[in-house]
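Aspartic ase PCS1-like structure dump, as promised
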Amino acid sequence: MAIEYFYKFLFFVLLILFNFMQITVQENTVSFSFPLTSAPLSKNSSHKAVLRASLLSSQPRKALVQKPVPGSSSYNYKSAFKYSMALIVSLPIGTPPQTQQMVLDTGSQLSWIQCHRKSPKRPPPPPTTSFDPSLSSSFSVLPCNHPICKPRIPDFTIPTSCDQNRLCHYSYFYADGTLAEGNLVREKFTFSSSRSTPPLILGCATESAEAEGILGMNLGRLSFISQAKISKFSYCVPLRQGGVQTRPTGTFYLGQNPNSHTFQYISLLTFPQSQRKPNLDPLAFTVALLGIKIGGKKLNIPEAVFRPDAGGSGQTMIDSGTQYTFLVDTAYSKVREEVVRLVGPKLKKGYVYGGSLDMCFDGNPIEIGQLIGDMSFQFDKGVEILIGKERILDHVEGGVHCVGIGRSESLGVASNIIGNFHQQNLWVEFDTTNRQVGFGKADCSKTV
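structure tokens r here:
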């Protein structure tokens, strides 16, 4: 991971004084679901949303969080999806719709799609590869004089600029050194002939190393859920066994989930402007983690480690766009200390996967999991995320299995992040109206 990019571009952010201008979005509420699939990403792909969040959190903000919106419409939809390392949603975008693949990411704000004109001289590519603006009657570009295209708008990690065509240009740099850049545009998500979102502000990427775009689902005013006025969504990540080649099927909802009566809810933490700090990301889905248990033993980690400190470091967020879980140094050290106590002689010495996971083994994963025992993340009201001993380790490559927890410092961030690996066999519901996150145990591989 190229952490140097963080420092290279952070100084741009710190020099910006931010003013805010209200964006008008239609008030119609929508509730939809989409077919999801997943694709193996690079080893560092799961880090990208994390670095993006850390860059945004380094900026002082004023009233960036979208206010809760009225409840979703009565139209509720669900769909099956495939899961490997990330959730990739297939979305119908434009008029008529073109199916686009986007990573479902609760840790980022701006949504963007791959935009490339289809050349008539070449065979047409698959419908999920790129978006052709010329084929959509609802597509429009944002000119440089648009209110959102101002260098002092804080919604972007790098200030927007005008390109040679006087169009609004954006750039995102990721933790592995890759770049996504293009123009800001407006486009509809067209789900049927009678149902679509209003035109939403998106990125139309012309340069990107990834095959998929991003569906930004955090609390920012430019996120998909904020612009489309979607107040509730949920997903059930199925248990993945046999490595990244296995793609079990789960379920995704936008709008009301009929299973929600079985969920246990915890409150989202909110941060008034007076509490905003340099390392805090107020747009994330932040929760109050109280502790971690391994093998029934609660580790000696102060609760304050999981809350933002004076500089904003230490917040705990639920992030679908990050594969593994990452903990700040104090918490991670306690977890690793306990793992070493239980199975230290079996550790693969000197091995680090993806620059982050260093609790790895060559031995029998079932045997090692039994020696470590169950793990749980504990929240208030008795709510917990329980990871059974059979799910402690993840197969990463060549017979090597690792505990799915890394040190946040390895990403250049100062937050605790619960990734999708530890959200398997669990309903996770995000409710922005009631400012809460719900969890419900489930066999996510079954139709629900």
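Confidence is low (pLDDT under 50) at residues 1-64, 68-75, 124-128.
lmk if u need the other ones
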